[in-house]
Structure of Outer membrane protein TolC:
Amino acid sequence: MRTIYLFLLFFIFQPGIAQPILRLEEALDIALQNNFDIVLAKNNASIASTRNDAGNAGMLPNIMLNVNDINSITNTNQIQGGTERTLNNAKNLVLNFGVALDWTVFDGLRMFARKEQLKKLEAQGKAALQSAILTRVGDIYVAYYDLVQRQQQIKAVDTAIALSKARYTVAENRYKIGKASKLEVLNAQVDLNTDESLQVRQKEQYKAAKINLNVLMARAPELDFQVEESVILEENIDLAAHISLAKSQNPQLIALMLAKNSAELQLKQIRAGRYPTIRVNTGYNIQRTEASLGFITQSQSQGFTYGFSASMPIFQGNQISRDERIAKLEIENAKLTVAQQELLIVGQLQSAYESYLAQKSLATIEANNVTLAAQNLDITLAKFKIGTLTPIEYRTAQQQYIEAKIRHSNALFQAKIFETTLKELSGTLRFWKFY
């Protein structure tokens, strides 16, 4: 009988044992391939990369192929030296064909600043992609371990039901032989119903958590699966190392630094407006004309054209000076934003680290409580069987054990959340595939 009760005490409930086990790395791989936010960030990064081109910066020439074909039918009347010539429906043709090249060879170095700015914008797109990936990976971590926690809690509640059923059976048997009152049986039934009601709510929350993880992975919400059994915490977390890494790897901070660099390059482009702009042009043209009436009824010419043009602003209503002042203020704002974000990240890291240590300590305490509560329940169970313990005392020991199990799983889950936050902020959160 003792063996049976111990089995019930440590009974492990596995929902859907035939369901496939979804491991964390598999969930991450699926999310990285399918998650909508990540796919959108990938596309935006590709757009920024495509724009980072010498031609988009204005460094390459423009080459145009031009064709003009003009035809007309007119009634023409010409008088020269007293002689009049008239022709109705006279046909005329003017045909121009040519290739032209126009190239800005100097614009105050604006094109080079623009090219460098496009490079920074491409890097910003990659930082945004990295940020989207880290955010979604963090969401997957939290959602996955939330399922692990709920799975553990369902097992704890199932253990409670098994114990309550055993208590109900004992109470009913004792009532039949006259060693217990009907009230004891009713109390046992009420406690069993309470545990079963809790199990229904736990399973409902567990299914909702599964749907949430499926949505994060961008797959069908109704897909069923099972997660791993345990939550493993990292043993040693160095706060100073995470702070140092965050200053160089946090994608949001990197994006703001790149935005500051882009603002500085924008100022260079504005200042380039004070210098002359020089363009060279060349081309090859063919022209043919035909006229039904006139001294020259047909002509054709062809050959090269070449030259250059230069322009320099003298006065533009102080527009360049205004743009310079605005650009300097935008640079100052960008610097302040970087400093603000860095301070915010350091504060978040320190807060998450303290919470991580607290939850980790709680997990250790509650693990010890689970052991003690299990021993207490074992002793209580033995006394309850021989009738030296009241049902209320038995129920109290049962609840203490179940609550200790739930508190332990909660503490592990919370510690894992703060561990994930630390790694997400420092840009060190592990994921298996980037693309």
Q: What stands out?
A: The radius of gyration is 40 Å.
